[in-house]
Amino acid sequence: MKEYKNVYILDHPLIRHKLAIIRDKNTNTKQFREVISELATLMAYESFKDVPTQKIVVETPLETVEQTVVKENSIAIVPILRAGLGMVDGILSLFPAAKVGHIGLYRDEETFEPKEYYCKLPVGIEEKVVMVVDPMLATGGSACDAITMLKKRGCKKIKLMSIIGAPEGVSKVADAHPDVEIYVSTLDRCLNEHCYILPGLGDAGDRIFGTK
Fold it and tell me: Is the CB of residue 179 less than 8 Å from the CB of residue 157?
């Protein structure tokens, strides 16, 4: 895969450790769900380095001091249903006041193309930094469509965060949306004939929610 200025691989020992847990086929639903959320927290710490901030004055027990805080009402999280829901609480643990929207896309089992079935976004989302989340960036079709939907609604600052990316999906999004920052914890080898990431971790949605 060629190098992209808008693609960031968040390689860290803690992330690699937790990635090993969710890859393991013997990891149960409870632990898988917890670790997905923990990974989202770790990745959000890095991917929101440029979060909007503002200055406030705080009174300590001794004197007043100017401090920097996250700008109020500046962030929105948009999970791609359903697997993206597993990452929301991990980001909210850092930004509890963030608004949450939802985009529903399913994959046609014959064409592997995404189909929209739901879209509900916070009021004023066009003025916020929007983080689109989906654990697996496979073909890139769902992510591209979700980002296009947000742009049509006026969103100007969009980021994409996925735990695992396939070269095919990362390249597709990076080429289609060069203005969107893409964050993944690891870049896997390729997609198989069913468009699953290899080595991957299987179906993230099924493993988060305990379905087959």
Answer: no
DSSP assignment, residue 69? E
- Residue 2 has a pLDDT of 83
Residue 106's pLDDT is what?
74
- Exactly one of 68, 111, 145, 207 is catalytic; name it: 111
Tokens of 15: 């992330």
Residues contacting 16, CB < 8 A, separation 6+ = 186
> Which residue is catalytic, options 33, 206, 207, 211?
206
**Which residue is listed with tokens 């608004």?**
99
Can 207 be counted among the known catalytic residues? no
SS3 12: coil
Low-confidence stretches of the chain (pLDDT < 70) are 107, 112
Of 27, 41, 89, 203, the active-site residue reads: 203
Contact 184, 133 (CB under 8 A): no
Tell me the C-alpha distance between 42 and 30, whole Å: 19
The pLDDT of residue 105:
81
Alpha helices in the chain (DSSP H): 13-23, 29-47, 85-92, 141-152, 167-176, 204-209
Tell me what pLDDT residue 112 has: 64
Is 111 catalytic? The answer is: yes
Please pick, among 23, 41, 107, 186, the residue that the annotation labels catalytic.
Answer: 107
134 is catalytic: no
**Placement of tokens 């027990």 in the chain:** 61
Q: Tell me the C-alpha distance between 189 and 200, whole Å.
A: 9
Q: Is 206 a catalytic residue?
A: yes
